[in-house]
Amino acid sequence: MLTREEDIDAHALARQGWTISAIARHLGRDRKTIRAYLAGNRTPGARARTTPDPFAPYAEYCRARLAEDPHLWATTLYDEVTDLGYPGAYQTFTRQLRQRQLRPVCQDCRPTAGRAVAVIEHPPGEETQWDWVELPDPPAAWGAGANAHLLVGALAHSGAWRGLLCESEDQAHLIAGIDHITRALGGVTKVWRFDRMATVCHPPTGKVTATFAAVAKHYGVSVAICPPRRGNRKGVVEKAVHSAAQRVWRTLPDEATVESAQAALDRWCTTRGDARARTTAEGRTTVAALAAAESLGALPPVPFPAVTTVERKVSAQALVAYRGNSYSVAPELAHATVTVIARLGEPHLDIATSSGAVIARHRAAAPGAGAMVRDHGHVTALNTEAMKAATSAVPHRSKVRIPPGPDALAAAAVLRGTAAPASTTTSVHGAEEGAVVIDLSRYAAAANGRNTLT
Q1: In this predicted model, what pLDDT tens digit does every residue of 61-84 receive, in sequence order?
Q2: The pTM is what?
Q3: Nearest to 35 by CA among 77, 80, 2, 69
């Protein structure tokens, strides 16, 4: 077997007029080997088989079966060729399928990688692309479970994008995220493009749902649904998702809060994301300059009145944490689970019990402000409960000597088997047998004996 370098040298020397014998002597190889490589009968780096290929007789059958059914499992095909007499192992069989490329590519199921992709024109102010991304392994203090939810909206023309971390991916949080992002981008485009998410359309048909149709009318936009399994149709937002995951989420510290993570994302978008360079027909520019030149439509004065609901656990101080702030409830609800109800565009939020009864209403503070919003009645009730629980009793000392008492010693004696057996018979003096009896007459006799002279 010749190496690639030897094969190159052999062909170069042959073109210079060297004979096969001279080339063989120069390379230290057999003349038949040099002749086979120069004739193209052998491939450099690949050793010729000295034994028949056991798979070769079955290659045509496998090619025909996989042409009929490109999705046929290799295990099923292996069962068939084994019945036909194939002697090899399953691992050798699958390796031969890969090396010979016997399984054809199903065009209907083929991913976008490797396909020819058309260039889609995106006029300024025409389209905003939306997508959810589940970010794995959020900090444990978030209580978000296995994934955090990020909604990303990107202007298709300029590539400017913004994101919002949400509690869930339901329709209310989708609407809240859309309103937040469109206001951060500075306006609305003519079209909003989504994939087939159930909160926007009916996935099998792509028809917009009645509830989201009202949202589109409120903002004055058209809704475009991507064809199924066409991720490259909204490639702008897909690249924004990759940037959010790799540039912001990947380096997020463990001690970060939801509010600090949101602030880090917004800071990256405005400083680094908008500073990305772009080349246009007029020359070099940036994403921020392209976004500023887009003619975005005006936003409605108030958001769509969607109602978001999230569950929270009340702290020992009768406080409910929500979006970086704390809101008070009655002290009787400490450690209970309540529901925070917030309607977009309203300055207040409600706190309800698990049964749906509203128990508190507070003016909503700015997200992430760290404010503690407390009702005067709640403060008074909490102080009263705290005073009731207070006591002036001296607490138990920890460094004292308290040996086992009689009851404990008696129980230990029973466990050790050293306790005196109980008896129901009585002595002459009326005491139970086995009990200690003190007879004073014996003491008197002893005393008289000591006083008698002998």
Answers
A1: 999 999 988 888 899 899 999 999
A2: 0.64
A3: 2
